Protein backbone atom coordinates (compact mmCIF):
# COMPACT_ATOMS: atom_id res chain seq x y z
CA UNK A 1 0.00 0.00 0.00
CA UNK A 2 2.76 2.41 0.94
CA UNK A 3 4.60 1.70 -2.32
CA UNK A 4 1.47 2.56 -4.31
CA UNK A 5 0.95 5.73 -2.33
CA UNK A 6 4.60 6.64 -2.84
CA UNK A 7 4.22 6.23 -6.62
CA UNK A 8 0.97 8.23 -6.74
CA UNK A 9 2.50 10.85 -4.46
CA UNK A 10 5.53 11.18 -6.74
CA UNK A 11 3.40 11.49 -9.87
CA UNK A 12 1.08 14.05 -8.28
CA UNK A 13 3.95 16.02 -6.80
CA UNK A 14 5.79 16.23 -10.14
CA UNK A 15 2.57 17.43 -11.79
CA UNK A 16 2.20 20.09 -9.11
CA UNK A 17 5.81 21.16 -9.37
CA UNK A 18 5.80 21.42 -13.16
CA UNK A 19 2.43 23.19 -13.37
CA UNK A 20 3.49 25.55 -10.57
CA UNK A 21 6.73 26.45 -12.37
CA UNK A 22 4.83 26.92 -15.63
CA UNK A 23 2.50 29.34 -13.82
CA UNK A 24 5.47 31.15 -12.30
CA UNK A 25 7.43 31.59 -15.54
CA UNK A 26 5.91 34.24 -17.80
CA UNK A 27 6.45 32.64 -21.26
CA UNK A 28 5.00 29.26 -20.27
CA UNK A 29 2.05 30.79 -18.43
CA UNK A 30 1.32 32.92 -21.49
CA UNK A 31 1.54 29.92 -23.84
CA UNK A 32 -1.00 27.95 -21.80
CA UNK A 33 -3.31 30.97 -21.80
CA UNK A 34 -2.94 31.27 -25.56
CA UNK A 35 -3.87 27.64 -26.23
CA UNK A 36 -6.69 27.96 -23.66
CA UNK A 37 -5.47 25.26 -21.30
CA UNK A 38 -6.70 26.22 -17.79
CA UNK A 39 -3.37 25.68 -16.05
CA UNK A 40 -4.53 27.33 -12.83
CA UNK A 41 -7.46 24.91 -12.60
CA UNK A 42 -5.15 21.96 -13.34
CA UNK A 43 -2.84 23.10 -10.55
CA UNK A 44 -5.69 23.56 -8.06
CA UNK A 45 -7.33 20.20 -8.85
CA UNK A 46 -3.97 18.43 -8.61
CA UNK A 47 -3.37 20.16 -5.27
CA UNK A 48 -6.66 18.81 -3.90
CA UNK A 49 -5.64 15.29 -5.00
CA UNK A 50 -2.25 15.83 -3.37
CA UNK A 51 -3.87 16.82 -0.07
CA UNK A 52 -5.95 13.63 -0.09
CA UNK A 53 -2.83 11.55 -0.77
CA UNK A 54 -0.93 13.23 2.07
CA UNK A 55 -3.79 12.60 4.50
CA UNK A 56 -3.98 8.96 3.46
CA UNK A 57 -0.20 8.56 3.73
CA UNK A 58 0.44 9.99 7.19
CA UNK A 59 -0.50 6.88 9.17
CA UNK A 60 1.42 4.58 6.81
CA UNK A 61 4.43 6.90 6.79
CA UNK A 62 4.67 7.16 10.57
CA UNK A 63 4.29 3.39 10.92
CA UNK A 64 6.86 2.71 8.20
CA UNK A 65 9.52 5.06 9.57
CA UNK A 66 9.07 4.12 13.23
CA UNK A 67 11.84 1.52 13.20
CA UNK A 68 13.71 2.80 10.15
CA UNK A 69 17.11 4.54 9.99
CA UNK A 70 17.30 8.27 10.62
CA UNK A 71 17.66 9.08 6.93
CA UNK A 72 14.28 7.45 6.21
CA UNK A 73 12.65 9.40 9.02
CA UNK A 74 14.29 12.61 7.85
CA UNK A 75 13.02 12.18 4.27
CA UNK A 76 9.50 11.37 5.45
CA UNK A 77 9.25 14.21 7.94
CA UNK A 78 10.82 16.67 5.50
CA UNK A 79 8.08 15.90 2.98
CA UNK A 80 5.39 16.31 5.65
CA UNK A 81 6.77 19.69 6.74
CA UNK A 82 6.97 21.05 3.21
CA UNK A 83 3.60 19.54 2.27
CA UNK A 84 2.01 21.26 5.27
CA UNK A 85 3.53 24.60 4.28
CA UNK A 86 2.38 24.19 0.67
CA UNK A 87 -1.12 23.20 1.67
CA UNK A 88 -1.70 26.02 4.16
CA UNK A 89 -0.06 28.69 1.99
CA UNK A 90 -1.86 27.43 -1.11
CA UNK A 91 -5.23 27.43 0.67
CA UNK A 92 -4.53 30.96 1.87
CA UNK A 93 -3.78 32.05 -1.70
CA UNK A 94 -6.94 30.37 -2.99
CA UNK A 95 -9.20 31.97 -0.36
CA UNK A 96 -7.10 35.14 -0.13
CA UNK A 97 -9.92 37.58 -0.97
CA UNK A 98 -11.29 37.25 2.58
CA UNK A 99 -7.90 37.57 4.31
CA UNK A 100 -5.74 40.58 5.22
CA UNK A 101 -3.15 41.65 2.64
CA UNK A 102 -0.18 40.89 4.89
CA UNK A 103 -1.32 37.27 5.33
CA UNK A 104 -1.85 36.55 1.63
CA UNK A 105 1.43 38.26 0.66
CA UNK A 106 3.33 36.10 3.13
CA UNK A 107 1.47 33.04 1.86
CA UNK A 108 2.77 33.72 -1.67
CA UNK A 109 6.31 34.13 -0.33
CA UNK A 110 6.10 30.88 1.66
CA UNK A 111 4.61 28.99 -1.29
CA UNK A 112 7.34 30.19 -3.64
CA UNK A 113 10.24 29.64 -1.28
CA UNK A 114 9.07 26.15 -0.30
CA UNK A 115 8.98 25.21 -3.97
CA UNK A 116 12.41 26.53 -4.85
CA UNK A 117 14.09 25.27 -1.69
CA UNK A 118 12.62 21.83 -2.32
CA UNK A 119 13.85 21.58 -5.92
CA UNK A 120 17.45 20.62 -4.95
CA UNK A 121 16.11 17.82 -2.72
CA UNK A 122 13.86 16.54 -5.52
CA UNK A 123 16.75 16.50 -7.99
CA UNK A 124 19.11 14.81 -5.51
CA UNK A 125 16.50 12.25 -4.46
CA UNK A 126 15.45 11.44 -8.04
CA UNK A 127 18.93 11.29 -9.55
CA UNK A 128 20.17 9.20 -6.65
CA UNK A 129 17.41 6.63 -7.15
CA UNK A 130 17.62 6.45 -10.93
CA UNK A 131 21.42 6.28 -11.11
CA UNK A 132 21.85 4.35 -7.86
CA UNK A 133 24.16 7.02 -6.47
CA UNK A 134 24.75 6.83 -2.73
CA UNK A 135 26.12 9.64 -0.62
CA UNK A 136 28.61 8.42 1.98
CA UNK A 137 26.42 9.17 4.95
CA UNK A 138 27.63 8.03 8.39
CA UNK A 139 26.61 4.49 9.23
CA UNK A 140 24.44 5.64 12.15
CA UNK A 141 22.44 7.85 9.75
CA UNK A 142 21.69 5.33 6.99
CA UNK A 143 21.35 2.14 9.05
CA UNK A 144 20.07 1.06 12.44
CA UNK A 145 23.57 1.18 13.88
CA UNK A 146 23.79 2.66 17.40
CA UNK A 147 24.53 6.35 17.69
CA UNK A 148 28.16 7.27 18.33
CA UNK A 149 29.06 8.50 21.80
CA UNK A 150 29.48 12.05 20.51
CA UNK A 151 25.85 12.18 19.39
CA UNK A 152 24.54 10.45 22.49
CA UNK A 153 26.28 13.14 24.48
CA UNK A 154 24.77 15.79 22.18
CA UNK A 155 28.19 16.69 20.82
CA UNK A 156 28.51 16.42 17.05
CA UNK A 157 31.87 15.56 15.60
CA UNK A 158 33.37 18.36 13.53
CA UNK A 159 33.22 16.31 10.32
CA UNK A 160 29.55 15.42 10.78
CA UNK A 161 28.63 18.97 11.65
CA UNK A 162 30.39 20.40 8.58
CA UNK A 163 28.79 17.81 6.30
CA UNK A 164 25.21 18.47 7.45
CA UNK A 165 25.69 22.22 7.66
CA UNK A 166 27.37 22.37 4.25
CA UNK A 167 24.69 20.34 2.49
CA UNK A 168 21.96 22.42 4.12
CA UNK A 169 23.58 25.67 3.01
CA UNK A 170 24.09 24.28 -0.50
CA UNK A 171 20.41 23.37 -0.84
CA UNK A 172 19.29 26.77 0.42
CA UNK A 173 21.76 28.51 -1.90
CA UNK A 174 20.61 26.58 -4.97
CA UNK A 175 16.92 27.09 -4.22
CA UNK A 176 17.46 30.74 -3.32
CA UNK A 177 19.48 31.32 -6.49
CA UNK A 178 16.68 29.94 -8.65
CA UNK A 179 14.02 31.89 -6.75
CA UNK A 180 15.97 35.15 -6.93
CA UNK A 181 16.95 35.14 -10.58
CA UNK A 182 14.08 33.36 -12.31
CA UNK A 183 11.66 36.34 -12.22
CA UNK A 184 14.17 38.69 -13.92
CA UNK A 185 12.35 38.18 -17.22
CA UNK A 186 9.31 39.79 -15.61
CA UNK A 187 10.86 42.80 -13.86
CA UNK A 188 13.19 45.67 -14.51
CA UNK A 189 16.76 45.27 -13.36
CA UNK A 190 16.57 48.10 -10.84
CA UNK A 191 13.29 47.14 -9.17
CA UNK A 192 13.29 46.99 -5.39
CA UNK A 193 12.34 43.38 -4.63
CA UNK A 194 11.68 44.18 -0.99
CA UNK A 195 8.39 45.80 -1.95
CA UNK A 196 7.51 42.99 -4.33
CA UNK A 197 7.83 42.66 -8.07
CA UNK A 198 5.44 42.45 -10.96
CA UNK A 199 4.81 39.06 -12.48
CA UNK A 200 3.91 39.77 -16.05
CA UNK A 201 0.80 37.87 -17.11
CA UNK A 202 -0.25 38.06 -20.76
CA UNK A 203 -2.84 36.00 -22.61
CA UNK A 204 -0.86 36.11 -25.86
CA UNK A 205 2.83 35.51 -26.54
CA UNK A 206 3.18 38.93 -28.14
CA UNK A 207 1.86 42.41 -27.57
CA UNK A 208 1.19 45.59 -29.56
CA UNK A 209 4.32 47.48 -30.66
CA UNK A 210 3.08 51.00 -30.21
CA UNK A 211 6.58 52.41 -30.54
CA UNK A 212 6.21 51.50 -34.23
CA UNK A 213 2.58 52.56 -34.71
CA UNK A 214 0.47 55.36 -33.34
CA UNK A 215 -1.64 54.59 -30.26
CA UNK A 216 -5.23 55.73 -29.98
CA UNK A 217 -8.13 55.15 -27.62
CA UNK A 218 -11.63 54.97 -29.07
CA UNK A 219 -14.58 55.84 -26.82
CA UNK A 220 -17.77 54.74 -28.50
CA UNK A 221 -21.04 52.89 -28.10
CA UNK A 222 -23.78 54.53 -26.03
CA UNK A 223 -22.10 57.95 -25.86
CA UNK A 224 -23.22 61.29 -27.21
CA UNK A 225 -20.25 61.38 -29.58
CA UNK A 226 -17.65 58.87 -30.63
CA UNK A 227 -14.22 60.13 -29.62
CA UNK A 228 -10.71 59.05 -30.55
CA UNK A 229 -7.88 60.11 -28.24
CA UNK A 230 -4.20 60.13 -29.19
CA UNK A 231 -1.06 60.90 -27.21
CA UNK A 232 -1.28 64.50 -28.46
CA UNK A 233 -4.59 64.88 -26.59
CA UNK A 234 -3.31 63.67 -23.21
CA UNK A 235 -1.78 67.02 -22.10
CA UNK A 236 -5.24 68.61 -22.46
CA UNK A 237 -6.48 66.82 -19.33
CA UNK A 238 -5.54 67.43 -15.67
CA UNK A 239 -2.68 65.17 -14.62
CA UNK A 240 -3.30 62.85 -11.68
CA UNK A 241 -0.71 60.95 -9.64
CA UNK A 242 -1.52 58.35 -7.01
CA UNK A 243 0.60 55.99 -4.93
CA UNK A 244 -1.15 52.67 -4.49
CA UNK A 245 -0.52 48.99 -3.76
CA UNK A 246 -0.99 46.85 -6.85
CA UNK A 247 -2.66 43.52 -6.06
CA UNK A 248 -3.01 40.38 -8.17
CA UNK A 249 -5.81 37.89 -7.61
CA UNK A 250 -3.18 35.12 -7.36
CA UNK A 251 -1.99 36.67 -4.10
CA UNK A 252 1.13 38.74 -4.84
CA UNK A 253 1.33 42.50 -4.40
CA UNK A 254 3.68 45.37 -5.16
CA UNK A 255 3.66 48.06 -2.51
CA UNK A 256 3.82 51.80 -3.06
CA UNK A 257 3.50 51.96 -6.85
CA UNK A 258 3.40 55.49 -8.22
CA UNK A 259 0.87 55.74 -11.07
CA UNK A 260 0.56 58.84 -13.22
CA UNK A 261 -2.12 59.54 -15.77
CA UNK A 262 -5.56 61.11 -16.15
CA UNK A 263 -8.87 60.30 -14.53
CA UNK A 264 -11.51 59.06 -16.93
CA UNK A 265 -13.98 61.38 -15.23
CA UNK A 266 -11.77 64.33 -16.17
CA UNK A 267 -11.64 63.12 -19.76
CA UNK A 268 -15.43 62.95 -19.93
CA UNK A 269 -15.88 66.34 -18.23
CA UNK A 270 -13.30 68.08 -20.41
CA UNK A 271 -14.71 66.70 -23.68
CA UNK A 272 -18.35 67.03 -22.65
CA UNK A 273 -18.97 63.33 -23.10
CA UNK A 274 -22.12 61.73 -21.72
CA UNK A 275 -23.35 58.16 -21.86
CA UNK A 276 -26.67 56.39 -21.55
CA UNK A 277 -24.97 53.04 -21.15
CA UNK A 278 -24.80 51.49 -17.70
CA UNK A 279 -21.80 49.35 -18.62
CA UNK A 280 -18.51 49.66 -20.44
CA UNK A 281 -16.16 47.07 -21.96
CA UNK A 282 -12.44 47.89 -22.04
CA UNK A 283 -10.52 46.28 -24.91
CA UNK A 284 -6.79 45.66 -25.13
CA UNK A 285 -4.76 46.42 -28.23
CA UNK A 286 -3.59 42.80 -28.24
CA UNK A 287 -6.96 42.01 -29.86
CA UNK A 288 -7.60 39.29 -27.27
CA UNK A 289 -8.00 40.61 -23.74
CA UNK A 290 -10.94 42.63 -22.46
CA UNK A 291 -12.89 43.24 -19.25
CA UNK A 292 -16.10 44.99 -18.30
CA UNK A 293 -17.23 47.50 -15.68
CA UNK A 294 -20.24 49.48 -14.69
CA UNK A 295 -20.15 53.05 -15.91
CA UNK A 296 -20.16 54.22 -12.29
CA UNK A 297 -17.03 52.17 -11.56
CA UNK A 298 -15.21 53.84 -14.43
CA UNK A 299 -16.36 57.43 -13.89
CA UNK A 300 -17.05 57.73 -10.15
CA UNK A 301 -14.46 55.49 -8.43
CA UNK A 302 -11.16 57.00 -9.52
CA UNK A 303 -10.47 54.82 -12.56
CA UNK A 304 -7.71 56.32 -14.67
CA UNK A 305 -5.67 56.04 -17.82
CA UNK A 306 -2.12 55.32 -16.66
CA UNK A 307 0.87 56.38 -18.79
CA UNK A 308 3.69 56.30 -16.24
CA UNK A 309 4.64 53.96 -13.41
CA UNK A 310 7.22 54.78 -10.73
CA UNK A 311 8.32 57.89 -12.57
CA UNK A 312 8.94 56.16 -15.89
CA UNK A 313 6.93 55.65 -19.03
CA UNK A 314 5.20 52.26 -18.98
CA UNK A 315 7.30 49.41 -20.29
CA UNK A 316 5.94 47.40 -23.19
CA UNK A 317 5.16 44.46 -20.92
CA UNK A 318 3.35 46.80 -18.51
CA UNK A 319 0.94 48.03 -21.18
CA UNK A 320 2.81 50.81 -22.98
CA UNK A 321 1.66 53.42 -23.67
CA UNK A 322 -1.62 53.27 -21.74
CA UNK A 323 -3.35 50.92 -19.37
CA UNK A 324 -6.56 51.17 -17.42
CA UNK A 325 -6.34 51.20 -13.62
CA UNK A 326 -8.98 51.03 -10.89
CA UNK A 327 -7.51 51.62 -7.40
CA UNK A 328 -9.99 49.32 -5.65
CA UNK A 329 -9.77 46.32 -7.97
CA UNK A 330 -7.40 43.45 -8.67
CA UNK A 331 -4.83 43.69 -11.43
CA UNK A 332 -6.76 41.56 -13.93
CA UNK A 333 -9.18 44.50 -14.27
CA UNK A 334 -6.26 46.72 -15.27
CA UNK A 335 -6.45 46.25 -19.04
CA UNK A 336 -3.07 46.78 -20.69
CA UNK A 337 -2.53 48.48 -24.09
CA UNK A 338 -6.00 50.00 -23.71
CA UNK A 339 -7.45 50.70 -27.17
CA UNK A 340 -11.22 50.99 -26.77
CA UNK A 341 -13.92 51.80 -24.23
CA UNK A 342 -17.30 50.70 -25.52
CA UNK A 343 -20.36 51.76 -23.51
CA UNK A 344 -23.50 49.63 -23.69
CA UNK A 345 -26.77 48.83 -21.95
CA UNK A 346 -25.86 45.15 -21.50
CA UNK A 347 -22.80 43.90 -19.63
CA UNK A 348 -20.20 41.68 -21.24
CA UNK A 349 -18.33 39.01 -19.31
CA UNK A 350 -14.60 39.68 -19.37
CA UNK A 351 -11.84 37.39 -20.62
CA UNK A 352 -11.11 35.87 -17.19
CA UNK A 353 -14.77 35.65 -16.26
CA UNK A 354 -15.25 33.38 -19.29
CA UNK A 355 -11.94 31.53 -19.08
CA UNK A 356 -11.21 31.35 -15.37
CA UNK A 357 -14.38 32.10 -13.44
CA UNK A 358 -13.00 35.32 -11.97
CA UNK A 359 -15.28 37.72 -10.12
CA UNK A 360 -16.97 40.15 -12.47
CA UNK A 361 -16.28 43.24 -10.37
CA UNK A 362 -12.89 42.26 -9.03
CA UNK A 363 -12.92 44.39 -5.89
CA UNK A 364 -10.12 43.90 -3.38
Automatic annotation (TrEMBL):
<feature type="transmembrane region" description="Helical">
    <location>
        <begin position="161"/>
        <end position="182"/>
    </location>
</feature>
<feature type="transmembrane region" description="Helical">
    <location>
        <begin position="115"/>
        <end position="133"/>
    </location>
</feature>
<protein>
    <submittedName>
        <fullName>Molybdopterin-dependent oxidoreductase</fullName>
    </submittedName>
</protein>
<feature type="transmembrane region" description="Helical">
    <location>
        <begin position="74"/>
        <end position="95"/>
    </location>
</feature>
<dbReference type="InterPro" id="IPR036374">
    <property type="entry name" value="OxRdtase_Mopterin-bd_sf"/>
</dbReference>
<feature type="transmembrane region" description="Helical">
    <location>
        <begin position="37"/>
        <end position="62"/>
    </location>
</feature>
<keyword id="KW-0812">Transmembrane</keyword>
<dbReference type="InterPro" id="IPR000572">
    <property type="entry name" value="OxRdtase_Mopterin-bd_dom"/>
</dbReference>
<keyword id="KW-0472">Membrane</keyword>
<feature type="transmembrane region" description="Helical">
    <location>
        <begin position="7"/>
        <end position="25"/>
    </location>
</feature>
<dbReference type="Pfam" id="PF00174">
    <property type="entry name" value="Oxidored_molyb"/>
</dbReference>
<feature type="domain" description="Oxidoreductase molybdopterin-binding">
    <location>
        <begin position="207"/>
        <end position="352"/>
    </location>
</feature>
<keyword id="KW-1133">Transmembrane helix</keyword>
